[in-house]
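Appendix B. One record, verbatim.
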Amino acid sequence: MTKAAARSPQDTEFINLSSASEDDFKSFYTNLLGAWFPADELDTLENLRSAVEDNADGILALAEGRVIGGSVYEHFVGDSVQLLGYLVVDGAVRGRGVGAELLRLTIAQSASKLALAEIEDPRYWPITERSDPVARLRFWERQGCMLLPIPYTQPALRPESRRVRHLLLIVVPQGTQSLPDEIPAPLVLEFLREYYESSEGSISDDDPELSELWALCSEGHLQLWPIDRLEVTDAHH
């Protein structure tokens, strides 16, 4: 997508995050990301802006000049893996197709071999005024996403933050292509190692939490599961 705006649905304007004004960028971060994501899942505004200047980008959705949604993605393993780190829509406009269009445009910006996203496991994360993990799971299921059978933990994004446990790592369809039954495990391993190293600065193979992930992704393929088969992420605990 170019900097020229696209419109749809409900006359919503979609622009690249990298071409957004400073006011819209800050509004997206403060009013949407800051309002809907826990502190440990959220990087700083400065780090996010720096990432967008490097290998990240995203899409903003605007209506009547106000930011009503947005996404952020990064590339890993060269351009082989696209990680959709954030996708959020203002609660007042949910159910109007804005989230689905944000996802479509975001995935279309990348030529990666694999698109991934992190979501909260609704068995461990409660429904609150800020967050509804059950509704989010249903959204991603409607988009045709599939689940990786690994006990996923998000790395600590900042020195003062903690790792975020009880997340799900899901695979997102790219364009009109249907997802395969399985994906190469070594590609997932390369992504995980690079993601942890870039976030935490260094990693240790003696780390029990990571060594389990490395072992699961060390060879062969990882089967993809329906996104509601949450128990497959517990199989190795």
